[in-house]
Amino acid sequence: MGAALVAVAALPSPAGRPQGGDAPPAKDTIFARKTVMDTIGSNMDQLEEMLEPGGKLDVADAREHLDTISVLLQTFPHLFPAATNQWQAGAIRDPAYDTFAAPVIWSNFPDFYARAMTGSKAALDASRTTKMVEFKAKVAELRSTCDGCHALYMKAE
Ligand code: HEC
Asked: How far is the centre of ligand 1, averaged over its atoms, from the C-alpha of 134 (Å)?
């Protein structure tokens, strides 16, 4: 135990990272929230595949994807410190690292936050269904929370 702690303490700290109580660099927070959204997206893809012609509802699998989406949507709006408000019209952006979060998020944060919570709850509700028809309707409801938020708060380019 003691030896393990010493080994961890001896690791070099990552370059350029502020020490002590400072916030992590904005680019790391942007990368984290894009990863969170990417993960939400791939879980949603798996769910929507079950709804395709010939697809079938695997209740246990669907529940796992929906629980993941629900938890990640709760986490997501906590990744928006002011320093990460970096989208600019006409700027060249790297889709992997640069943010597409619309600046209006920061002037309308309570609505943005509420939409994330609504999405999270829609995922939780959907996770309780066991019948295909109901599942279909609930996943469509969840999808409308994604699309509604993106329409207002995500820039396409
Ligand atoms: C509360 C608003 C909100 C909700 C709800 C929401 N998103 Fe997003 N989403 C965003 C914002 C903002 C971004 C851009 C983040 C950035 O670039 O910093 C984004 C980005 C994405 C991306 C691109 C990620 C990347 O690699 O840059 C995907 C995929 C995505 N969302 C899927 C979904 C899906 C699927 C749902 C619903 C299950 C969903 N989102 C719900 C706001 C939301």
From this structure: 24
